[in-house]
Write a structure and sequence with these properties.
There is one protein chain. 36% of the residues lie in helices and 23% in strands. It has 305 residues and is of the alpha/beta class. The protein folds into two domains: 217 residues, Spore Coat Polysaccharide Biosynthesis Protein SpsA, Chain A; 54 residues, no CATH class. A hairpin with a 4-residue loop joins β8 and β9.
Length: 305
């Protein structure tokens, strides 16, 4: 097998310790001999010394300076575009900078590629599952769509000993083969912060590209988002701002995502988002906690900043 060049893509903003820990876990991993990796990292205006530390500890990586207003999806696009200008890579490995990678995570992704070639005859997208370090509960990875005539949800899969087909992937640990980029491109620039990875895997799935959750757990990452609405004692102006915020409910991006992939569910979702904003006391009273990824085909995992 000829040598495979892979571009590793990350973005960060004022999370120096987590960013450095993530990179350290990457360099501790087991690397298949036929692969070489180049890291492209967008430092989106960090003021906590992240950029300086990266230059000192990891001078071999390509560090891209962002404006401070890129958010997660924008930072990842900048890293991706920089890598594509560098050379024609055989694959792209997307990582979230708060992930601690298991030493065998690459081997699990390669097992998935072998499975994809055997079962589908082509390469695709492979998501590595992460678990919460404290509870061991699966936090991110791949999801299956569960829908009826009114409500559509996504079910987060638990990793097994073999790859599992899915439709939606998180990009906490995500392998994207070159043929996928040739067919789909990179993240849609309509997405500012989150949702871009969900949209991307669905676009690939609709083009009959293999989308898999890799076997075994690939790393640890805490899902620390909790409730996806503002409580009733928060002023209405702040609740509306949260609805529209890129790091809140991302109303504009979310409705774009639904119209593209799930147009039948636009009316229901429109109603529910505004209900949460105007009448949050229903959720305050009847729901102790709710994570967006468990109720809609959307995730707000990028705790970026």
């Amino acid at each position: 097998m000829k040598n495979q060049r892979v571009a590793v893509l990350l973005t960060c903003h004022n999370r120096k310790a987590k960013t450095l820990d993530c990179l350290a876990s990457f360099y501790r991993a087991v690397f298949p001999s036929e692969y070489t990796f180049d890291i492209f990292l967008t430092d989106d205006g960090s003021t906590d010394g992240t950029g300086e530390a990266l230059k000192k500890l990891y001078p071999q990586i390509t560090l891209i300076q962002g404006s401070g207003n890129l958010f997660w999806a924008g930072g990842m696009r900048m890293a991706w575009e920089s890598a594509m200008r560098e050379c024609s890579y055989d694959a792209f490995l997307l990582l979230n900078d708060d992930v601690m990678l298991n030493s065998d995570f690459l081997l699990n992704l390669m097992k998935t590629e072998e499975h994809s070639l055997q079962k589908r005859g082509k390469k695709g997208i492979y998501s590595g599952a992460t678990v919460d370090e404290t509870t061991g509960i699966v936090s991110y990875g791949g999801s299956k769509i569960k829908a009826n005539h009114i409500v559509m949800k996504s079910q987060l899969l638990s990793p097994r000993e073999f790859p599992q087909e899915c439709e939606i992937t998180n990009a906490n640990i995500l392998w994207i083969s070159k043929n996928v980029v040739d067919a789909v491109g990179i993240f849609d620039d309509k997405y500012i912060h989150g949702i871009a990875d969900y949209d991307y895997s669905l676009r690939a799935y609709k083009k009959n590209i293999p989308v898999y959750l890799a076997p075994s757990v690939c790393g640890t990452c805490t899902n620390d988002h909790g409730k996806n609405w503002k409580k009733g004692d928060v002023p209405l102006k702040e609740r509306v701002a949260y609805l529209k915020s890129h790091k809140g409910l991302a109303y504009r991006e979310y409705m774009y995502y639904l119209k593209r992939h799930f147009p039948l569910f636009v009316p229901y979702s429109f109603f529910m988002l505004w209900m949460k904003t105007f009448f949050p006391f229903f959720w305050d009273r009847f729901k102790k906690t709710e994570v967006m990824a468990n109720n809609y085909p959307i995730e707000k995992k990028k705790n970026y900043a």
